[in-house]
């Protein structure tokens, strides 16, 4: 395993980038801690695969350095970085059996035959392919081939890092859950540094110790699932994490109070006097319908089984409220109230830190 350091790293696919807007990956400084599991999360085109390919050596950055345990590997080829990478679509040797595919990385390194056999059996059990070990890969389904690809990535125990680029795209939903569970088990057992690229928040939040949220080529927040949910550092994080995402409401803020369309809202903390485009960020989970609060118009109610999602209008803006499954949404519920302690304040899309509370 290795500590991976990104130092003033940035990348543009243009030969002569003139400004920040020409960079697919904006300047980034970060340490990936040895032995942790990370997820790179964001929408298509946000730069997450670019970053992964720079770490793996498939792409050389336009600027900056990448270090493994302090050693500069910026110009080192993939083979010298001692990493394993699993891609979005399966990469297998069709003429080989499943057993031969899984054994290939170990045999290439001259591992003892008994160790190869034992390790292949362990991985086959992990990916649920013990019964097809002697079948050729050519006749297998796409999801079976991807499981082989995952297994081949995991079969080595001596790698610096395991990199996964949307590896479960072609896997059926039930198998996705099983494989995510197995990946977490593998991480806990062997402590590999893992970096997992996905646009699926469920995959990211259930797999990773830390989630790296990317937006428009920039890392906007690195945190635990709880931190991303409770204290989104950017309005995009609030929107992207959660279902439905965070409500963002234009407001003016002075100290412990905010004003929305002429109505005052109490804030749980002192946010000073932020300037620019100021807004409140409130999760649907922390809104309550009732007879008190701001005037709201309920538009529709969606029953999703575990709870209800109420779509409503507040001062001409659509908002979402999560209500309990057994909660009746009646005609008397014409107002909405906020939990003051759960309100975040944003200025120009970035979270404002409450005064005297550090990063709280």
Automatic annotation (TrEMBL):
Cited InterPro entries: AAA+_ATPase, ABC_transporter-like_ATP-bd, ABC_transpr_FbpC, ABC_transpr_MalK/UgpC-like, Mo/tungstate-bd_C_term_dom, NA-bd_OB-fold, OB_MalK-like, P-loop_NTPase
Keywords: ATP-binding, Cell membrane, Membrane, Nucleotide-binding, Transport
Statement: the UniProt record of this protein carries the keyword Membrane: yes
Domain ABC transporter span(s) in chain numbering: 4-241
One Gene Ontology term, aspect cellular component: ATP-binding cassette (ABC) transporter complex, substrate-binding subunit-containing
UniProt keyword Nucleotide-binding, yes or no: yes
Any one GO molecular function term: ATP binding
Family per record: Belongs to the ABC transporter superfamily.
Protein name: ABC transporter ATP-binding protein
Annotated source species: Palleronia caenipelagi
Lineage of the species this protein comes from: Bacteria, Pseudomonadati, Pseudomonadota, Alphaproteobacteria, Rhodobacterales
């Amino acid at each position: 395993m290795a500590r991976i350091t990104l130092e003033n790293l940035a990348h543009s696919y243009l030969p002569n980038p003139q400004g920040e807007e020409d960079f697919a990956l904006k300047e980034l400084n970060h340490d990936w801690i040895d032995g942790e599991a990370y997820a790179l999360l964001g929408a298509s085109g946000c730069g997450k695969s670019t970053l992964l390919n720079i770490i793996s050596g498939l792409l050389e950055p336009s600027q900056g350095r990448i270090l493994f345990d302090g050693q500069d590997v910026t110009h080192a080829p993939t083979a010298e970085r001692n990493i394993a990478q699993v891609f979005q679509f399966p990469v297998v040797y069709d003429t080989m059996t499943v057993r031969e595919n899984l054994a290939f990385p170990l045999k290439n390194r001259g591992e003892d035959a008994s160790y190869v056999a034992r390790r292949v059996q362990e991985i086959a059990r992990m990916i649920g392919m013990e019964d097809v070990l002697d079948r050729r890969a050519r006749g297998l389904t796409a999801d079976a081939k991807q499981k082989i690809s995952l297994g081949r990535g995991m079969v080595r125990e001596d790698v610096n890092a395991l990199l996964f680029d949307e590896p479960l795209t072609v896997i059926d939903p039930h198998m996705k859950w099983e494989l995510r569970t197995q990946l977490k088990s593998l991480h806990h057992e062997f402590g590999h540094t893992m970096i997992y690229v996905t646009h699926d928040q469920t995959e990211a939040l259930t797999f990773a110790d830390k989630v790296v949220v990317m937006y428009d080529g920039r890392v906007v927040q690195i945190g635990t699932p709880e931190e991303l949910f409770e204290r989104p550092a950017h309005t995009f994080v609030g929107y992207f994490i959660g279902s439905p995402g965070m409500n963002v409401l234009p407001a003016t803020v002075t100290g412990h109070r905010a004003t929305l369309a002429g109505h005052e809202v109490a804030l749980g903390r002192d946010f000073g006097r932020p300037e620019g485009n100021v807004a409140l960020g409130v999760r649907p989970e922390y809104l309550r319908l009732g007879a008190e609060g701001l005037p709201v118009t309920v538009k529709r109610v969606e029953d999703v089984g575990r709870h209800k999602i109420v779509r409503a209008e507040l001062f001409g803006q659509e908002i979402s409220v999560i209500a309990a499954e057994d909660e009746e949404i009646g005609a008397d519920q014409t107002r909405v109230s906020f939990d003051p302690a759960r309100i975040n304040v944003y200025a120009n899309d970035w979270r404002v830190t409450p005064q005297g509370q550090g990063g709280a």
